[in-house]
From TrEMBL:
It comes from the Bacteria. InterPro entries: Aldolase_class_II_sugar_metab, Aldolase_II/adducin_N, Aldolase_II/adducin_N_sf. Its cofactor is Zn(2+). Belongs to the aldolase class II family. AraD/FucA subfamily. PANTHER family: FUCULOSE PHOSPHATE ALDOLASE, L-RIBULOSE-5-PHOSPHATE 4-EPIMERASE SGBE. GO terms for biological process: pentose catabolic process. Keywords: Metal-binding, Zinc. This is L-ribulose-5-phosphate 4-epimerase. GO terms for molecular function: aldehyde-lyase activity; L-ribulose-phosphate 4-epimerase activity; metal ion binding. It catalyses: L-ribulose 5-phosphate = D-xylulose 5-phosphate. SMART domains: Aldolase_II. The keyword Zinc applies.
Length: 225
């Protein structure tokens, strides 16, 4: 595959940033062993940068990241791509606004996935980040497009950038890989808080109007601009 100098430069930067973002998964204790992965779409190309399969987090670097096309076929890199590559690729093919995808088996979010229970919107933080409850996606086996299809169907029906795939764990998306990592950190944090709230009683849901107001404000006003 021939790439322009600009595309090669973009890929070099994404290899760096995607490698660095994997350290956020370990720093935030979202992953064990080699589970979990981050990918980024290469803007303007039908390509993505993703973690290699089965490599220890300590050994991940820009050089070990792999580049595949949006069907998961290896384009650049020495190592085999992550076993979740097909799911990431499916999301990029079908949701053009998505620039980054993250998958983990973080403990609390995965516990909700094990019960097949959406995380209810009972905190302003959930309204801010997720715009409502965090939905559950269908059970799907790895190996074909089933996980990707389940993710895209669920993401199209929600404002949430996180989906709890049933009996599996969270997948998150964002405009960039960094946004998707942020959503992965946030979904674990609220999964834990709401779990703890459940131990002592029934968390109180926010009204739809308040959820909409909070979400609109956070998405449009909050932060440095
Ligand atoms: Zn998984």
């Amino acid at each position: 595959m021939t790439l322009t100098a600009q595309a090669r430069g973009t890929i070099a930067e994404l290899r760096e940033s995607v490698a660095r973002l994997h350290s956020e998964l370990t720093r935030n204790e979202l992953v064990v062993w080699t589970a979990g992965n981050v990918s980024a779409r290469v803007p303007g190309e039908d390509l993505m940068v993703i973690k290699p399969s089965g490599v220890s987090y300590d050994d991940l670097s820009a050089d070990t990241m792999v580049v595949t096309d949006l069907h998961g076929k290896l384009v650049h890199g020495e190592l085999a791509p992550s076993s979740d590559t097909a799911a990431h690729a499916y999301v990029y093919r079908h949701l053009p606004g998505v620039g980054g995808v993250v998958h983990t088996h973080s403990t609390y979010a995965t516990a909700w996935a094990a019960r097949g229970e959406p995380i209810p919107c009972v905190l302003t933080m959930i309204a801010d980040e997720f715009g409502g409850e965090i939905p559950v996606g269908p059970f799907a086996l790895i190996g074909d497009d089933s996980i990707g299809r389940g993710l895209v169907e669920t993401l199209r029906a929600t404002r949430s950038p996180a989906v709890l795939m049933r009996n599996h764990g969270p997948f998150t998306v964002g405009r960039s890989a960094r946004d998707a990592v942020k959503a992965a950190v946030m979904v674990e944090d609220v999964a834990r808080t709401v779990h703890i709230a459940h131990q002592l009683g029934t968390p109180v849901p926010l009204s739809r109007t308040d959820v909409d107001r909070l979400h609109a404000r956070y998405q449009n006003v909050y932060g440095q601009r």
